[in-house]
Known about the structure:
Blueprint: H1 2-19, E1 23-32, E2 35-43, E3 53-59, E4 65-70, E5 81-88, E6 96-103, E7 107-115
Antiparallel strand pairs: 1-2, 2-5, 3-4, 3-6, 6-7
Amino acid sequence: xxxxxxxxxxxxxxGAAAAGSPEVTAVKATQDAAGWRFDVTVRHGDTxxxxxxxxxxxxxxxxxxxxxxxxxxxxxxxxxxxxxLSGVAIPEGLDRVHVQAHDSVHGRGEVLVVPLRGR
Length: 119
């Protein structure tokens, strides 16, 4: 019985490790009258509700949070996937932002630096 329990734990841990940290692979930033819109593409090996990409952040270069898009469910069968966030206020003078995905096990992934065209 003990061997089965250990094997089950190892399988669960292997699945979590295989999913890895979330990765932002592309960002399209556009400005309109309501602020900035970000179309963010994320890749992550979602395994279900126990381990999935659950959001992404728009950050200033000094780490201040400018926007957050919560992801409400796993995207096991849709990889990579793109979701949008509109109406993000970007302070004057910023010519770039950092975009960072988050998952339910590892937390935040690597930062992608995104230049803001027209600034």
